Amino acid sequence: MNKGPVLNKEDVRNYNVGSSNYSNYKIQPWDIWEEYKLNPWDADIIKRTLRCKSDPNLTQEESRILDYEKIIHVCKERIRQIKAKGTINHY
């Protein structure tokens, strides 16, 4: 089964899909995820912390506040999971 051309890692890192600007930086969120072997919840928090994404209907400040509100929401869910399991699993 042909899955198409294999992309060089550097090619993938030279562009974004969507409106975030991760490719402008030497270290991207997925570098941190991989290095620290993060679970999806912690990886999501890192991603939202590092991104500079603007919603066309919001000011830059409003977009950033929304990111922080999403981080808080993810943190609350992760805390709920840890309390329910009684342990921290890194998947």
The run of helices and strands is HHHH
Count of helices? 4
Helix content: 40-55%
Query: What overall form do the CA principal axes indicate?
Result: flat
C-alpha-based Rg, rounded: 16 Å
Oligomer: single chain
User: How many DSSP-defined strands?
Assistant: 0
Give the N-to-C terminal Cα separation. 30 Å
Give the overall average pLDDT.
81
Which ranges are low-confidence, i.e. pLDDT below 50, for 5 or more consecutive residues?
A: none
Q: Approximately what portion of the residues adopt beta-strand conformation?
A: under 5%
Find the structural class using helix and strand composition.
mainly alpha
In short:
54% of the residues lie in helices and 0% in strands.
Layout of secondary structure:
Elements: H1 9-12, H2 29-36, H3 40-50, H4 60-85
Helix pairs in contact: 2-3, 3-4
Question: What do these coordinates show?
Answer:
The chain has 91 residues and is mainly α. The chain has a domain at 27-85. 54% of the residues lie in helices and 0% in strands. It contains 4 helices and no strands. The protein has helices spanning 9-12, 29-36, 40-50, 60-85. Helix 3 packs antiparallel against helix 4. The protein is flat, with a radius of gyration of 16 Å. The two termini are 30 Å apart.
Notable features of this structure?
91 residues, mainly alpha
